[in-house]
UniProtKB/TrEMBL annotation, chains A, B:
Pfam families: FUR (PF01475). It comes from Flavobacterium psychroterrae. Coiled coil: none annotated. Signal peptide: none annotated. InterPro entries: FUR, Fur_C, WH-like_DNA-bd_sf, WH_DNA-bd_sf. Keywords: DNA-binding, Repressor, Transcription, Transcription regulation, Zinc. Belongs to the Fur family. SUPFAM superfamilies: Winged helix' DNA-binding domain. This is Transcriptional repressor. The lineage of its organism: Bacteria, Pseudomonadati, Bacteroidota, Flavobacteriia, Flavobacteriales.
Length: 130, 130
DNA sequence: ATTTTAAAAGCAACTATGTTGCATTAAAAT
DNA sequence: ATTTTAATGCAACATAGTTGCTTTTAAAAT
């Protein structure tokens, strides 16, 4: 069993996630980290955090990849089956933890992971853009 | 109104889509196209086909982007709200045209597009792997 | 407290994917 | 046949992510 270590960089990344209400891309994290660590290190930290079910990965229709903290640890089978909203205007991606899709799958499919992303206009942009 | 033209390259791409039962990446199409046209041309054809609602774009959790023919033209509001299945073993992505997620969104969100991708093991790989 | 060990980081080089500008070609309307 | 402009080719660029290898360092063992 390989142990996971608490490094300065990892702590900084987790702190950034803690402060953010929206999902963050590698680049956005890098901007906040500055030169505290190398950009490769951020990639590796994100990989580890995803592996340890501490953050989850969100892939948008435009190809951008973002990460957000998990708010639902207890479960044994850890699937992020909630929706994500991607605003085409402000480009923010938010977890909609309470929006869970229901669907009926044909037999003989084994689902390990779900990516459910809705794009459009978020409440903020819908109001101001009218 | 700008008109769309039928070129040799576009015809070839459409033919490739016609023959394929699974979704195709730019690279996969390029391999089949050979040197019939430049790789940039394939990108531009795919963009046009997506714009014209002839194919739709699928983004997988591993970041790979694939395209598949649309089988549902008639509708006015053209949203590809069906599920896609991405097999972690054979790496094929298939449209599950009949699997449509239902979900309840909070007020004030305007949805323009949906990306709903399930990853796991497809029926083929589930059988042969165990 | 000191030593050990292997996880994590730094750095450079590389790959993969997608984009842009501009000159040239060719589909299709006239 | 001529005209128009969508589409292509090509080169250069941009961005995101990966890999190999050495060095550093967290934390376990002593
Ligand atoms: Mn989420
Ligand atoms: Mn589809
Ligand atoms: Zn917004
Ligand atoms: Zn499979």
């Amino acid at each position: 069993m390989k142990t996971t270590r608490n490094t300065a960089a990892k702590t900084a990344v987790l702190e950034i996630f803690g402060k953010s209400k929206t999902a963050l891309s590698h680049t956005e994290i890098q901007k906040q980290i500055g030169d505290l660590c190398d950009r490769v290190t951020i990639y590796r930290i994100l990989d580890r955090l995803v592996n340890d079910d501490i953050v989850h990965k969100i892939v948008n229709l435009d190809g951008t990849v973002k990460y957000a903290k998990c708010h639902h640890h207890a479960q044994r089978v850890h699937i992020h089956n909630h929706a994500h909203f991607s605003c085409e205007n402000c480009l923010e991606i938010t977890c909609l933890e309470n929006v869970k899709p229901s669907y009926i799958l044909p037999h003989n499919y084994k689902v390990n992971d779900i990516n459910f992303t809705l794009s459009g206009l978020c409440p903020n942009c819908l109001n101001s853009n009218n």
